[in-house]
Amino acid sequence: MARRFYLTLLSFFSVLFASSATLANTDVDAVIEKVRSPSYDCPSQSLLPELEQTLTLESLSPQQRFALTVAKGQFLICRGKYEEAEKMLLKAIMQSNIDESSYAFASAIYQIGFSYDARENPARCKYYQQAQDLSSPKRHSDIFTSSSLGLINYCSESTSPEVRLGKMFGVLKRYSDNGSPGELAHIHNAIGLLYGDLEQHALAAEQYLKAHKMGLLVYKGSNKVSIIISAIVSLLSSGQTNKAYQSILELGALNSEINTPLSNFLYQYALSIYYRKTQDYNNLAYTLPDLEEATDSISSSFGQMLVDWHKAELCLHNNNLTCIKQYLTDTGALDKNAIPRIFETNLDYLSFNVSIFLALGDIERAKVAHSIYSKEVIKRREITQDTALIVGAANLYTRIYDLESAIEKAEEQRRNTLYTAILVFLLFVIIAGYVLRKKHVARKAIDPVTLLLNADSAIARINKLDAPKKGRAIAIAIFDISNLREITRKMGSTKGDFVLRQIAQTFQNVIRGNDILGRFGTDQFILCLHNIEERSARQFFDRVQSALESTFESDTNDDYFVVESQMSVFIATEKITGLNDILDDIAMSIDMDSRNDTN
Q: What percent of the chain has pLDDT over 90?
């Protein structure tokens, strides 16, 4: 017996545990789905604590833990922590028990490529290619698009520029009809990168600004400012400093809203390069401490090199040779022309390199630095003057412009259709409202028992009557049903409404189409005749009163009820004014007659 109880209890707890595990797995899968973000966007930073807490669960399956780790990598990349994300993801993909066909695995490969890309490491191409192979336009489409754009921009050195431009146009065309704002922003951003690589900075800036405008519709967090910083750099490179400053102001406003370490770094970075480009050294010196603090918060080696360069720029401006020598010592360039890899093609830095050696009086090294600078200038000139590149860029620009015009035209047609539908809907609502209101007013004007006009409505209509023609009059009669209660009592106490409806029907059977008939009181009715001779009016009223007497007459029943009524008549040969007072007098006279009859 005890053994059976133990087995039953064990089975109960096993089922309970299994149910809890299923529930837990469901919750974990929901968290994975919540924190997952497209490759071209950033997840909401507010979700990171929930992700971290879920990662601490011991019940996670290997695939669940891997998916959460990959999602965390995207959080880190969006915070500018590229090295940390790269190490974590490289370790994660080395596991042997994960599904390499899953979205998480393809995302991890792409993110590793992106982290290399952020530091211009050639290894990015290997991972972009692998990410593309793991995806397709229908399977993990965001990763396929992102990796394809990366391959076109950075990994097609052997492909002619016009072919690269054509491929880029093909991607844009594929998404032009039904691409989301996020996807289109991603593509325009990639086109901007390609234009920048071809030294077409004005065209690049235009694409970046389009991408930024589209991205604001869907991007969250630091991703809202990831494109506008590229636009600012391109605007400065093309000499559009005023427009660049306006974009910096927008970046500052977005940073105030987002306020993440990465967005703050990008804002300070934009300010510093703007002040360096415009040679505003006072403001450059003022903003450098903020840039240095922002750089420390994201642990960016690029940011630190930028801070060191700008400090040296200030030293050069102030002719502080000791400071310049210290900078060369720190960069390893004291005995050789060592240039940080990331600045090897930056003309501003190469020009600065020439200037510091001239300031130190080291003519030989200045010549070497100038030679490096000249080679880069010539290379840039060859790129910008290459007919194939210019024609290819112009052709792509034209095709993109035509495609965008078609998209805008289609969008305008959709808007016009929407506006027309809204207008038709509003007209329908207005007409329906008018009809319903008219019906409501009409219902309010009707006595619910007799379905005749109520007193207020009848009086209002009589007041609106024009003055009668010469020799004619407006005739008003009030019929007081003196034995209404008696008839109701004899027919049955529940027949009150029936009696009134029958009397009302008698009135309707004898009046003319333009006569005004209404229920004036509990047992009173009002009838108005317009443009009628006085004699004819009195005769008509007499016929009405006679018809009322026979309301309940029946051929099969000799014992019928005679409707007794008192009639008061008012005749006017002019337009009626003050009808309420007149009717009050008539009603009072009816009451007095009723009392006299009673007495």
A: 8
Instruction: Provide the H-helix boundaries in 217-319.
Output: 228-237, 241-258, 261-277, 281-298, 301-317
> Distance between CA 578 and CA 463 in Å, rounded?
8
Q: Give the integer Cα–Cα distance in Å for 307 and 322.
A: 18
42 to 50, 182, 228, 420: CA distances (angstroms): 16, 11, 15, 37
Hey, which residues does 527 pair with through a beta bridge?
477, 517
- The H-assigned helical ranges of 36-121 are 48-55, 62-78, 82-93, 103-118
Residue 401 has pLDDT above 70, yes or no: no
- Nearest partner of 134 among 108, 173, 115, judged by Cα: 108
Q: Of 264, 312, 315, 314, which Cα lies nearest the Cα of 291? A: 264
What are the structure tokens assigned to 406, written together? 């078609």
pLDDT for residue 138: 80
Instruction: Tell me the angle at which helices 161-176 and 141-154 cross, rounded to the nearest 10 degrees.
Output: 160
For the beta sheet containing 473-481, the strands, ordered from the edge strand earlier in sequence to the opposite edge, are 516-519, 524-532, 473-481, 565-572
Is pTM beyond 0.85 here? no
Residue type, 420: T
Q: Angle at Cα 545 formed by Cα 539 and Cα 547, nearest 5°?
A: 105
Distances (CA, A) of 519 to 441, 446, 506, 542, 581: 17, 9, 13, 18, 17
Helices first, then strands: H and E counts in the chain: 24, 4
Q: What is the pLDDT of residues 69-108, one digit of tens each?
A: 888 888 888 877 888 888 999 988 898 888 888 898 999 9
Indicate the DSSP class of residue 523: S
> Cα(314)–Cα(324) distance, rounded to whole angstroms?
9
Give the distance from CA 413 to its chain's centroid: 20
CB atoms within 10 A of CB 588: 11
DSSP one-letter code for 557: B
The pLDDT score that the predictor gives to residue 1 is 40
Give the Cα separation of 519 and 526 in Å (integer): 6
> Phi-psi region for residue 361, left (φ > 0), alpha (ψ -120 to 50) or beta?
left
pLDDT band at 503 (very low <50, low <70, confident <90, very high): confident
Residues 481-494: tens digit of each pLDDT? 888 888 888 887 77
471 in Cβ contact with 533 (< 8 Å): yes
Strand partners, 567: 479
pLDDT per position as a tens digit, 532-580: 888 888 889 888 888 888 888 764 555 667 888 888 888 888 888 777 7
Tell me the two tokens of residue 580.
Answer: 């309420």
In contact, 353 and 339? CB cutoff 8 Å: yes
Q: Please give the helix or strand (H or E) that residue 476 lies within, else none.
A: strand 473-481
CB-CB contact of 464 with 576 (8 Å): no
Q: Is the pLDDT of residue 295 over 70?
A: yes
